[in-house]
Specification:
Largest sheet: 9 strands, mixed
Number of strands: 9
Radius of gyration: 18 Å
Structural class: alpha/beta
Shape: globular
Amino acid sequence: CWSSHEIEEQSLGIGLAFDKAKQSTIEKKLNEEGGGYSKRNLITATYQFITPLVASSTTKQSGPQQKSYVNVSETGDSMHQMVRELSLRSEQPVTAHHMKVVVIGENLARSYKLEQILDQNLRESELRPSCLVLISKGRASKTLETKKAGEIPAFRLAGIVENAYRTTRILPPMSHIKVESKIKSGSSFLMQKVLSADGQVKFAGAAVIDGKTHKMTGTLNEEELEGVTWITGKG
């Protein structure tokens, strides 16, 4: 077919993290070589990609050094601009049809409105409205890392949500479409927080999003969250 694309040639985005600006080592080196341009570094987006070539080679080899994914970071003014910058660094365009999770760093969520951070995603026709949204304590990009061979961090985060039947400390999944609905209605709401340390993650507590400012204004620890879910239910 004239419009077909070989899967081996696709760069499949499965996870995305937003943090306050912090250029990666490779970005700094490229800029030093003259690859940069005049811009305000406000936000860093970290994409997690999985490619069939990487995944298939991992299954044939063993060792903690083998990964089934690759993380690529870009720092700039806006999501719109950063996606286009990534197109200058790879022959494989970003494909977001299979995006599973978006993680927003706590510092960024306190500084900018959620609608500012997610605006490009909500307008993007490729990214599904069912994509999960989480808030991280510390840098969101750390939640997209693991030391376990063969494990894919974005899938791990999406999978933890399925354990909600075993504990009241996991909130109902907050998808892109639900976040947009809450923002448009001016409602205050809770979002699941995730911690990361040494390649491990844990769902712990909640971020409080204010309905007027659309920013993160507080947190609930695990004990407080459990009390809220018991009183109000999870529906």
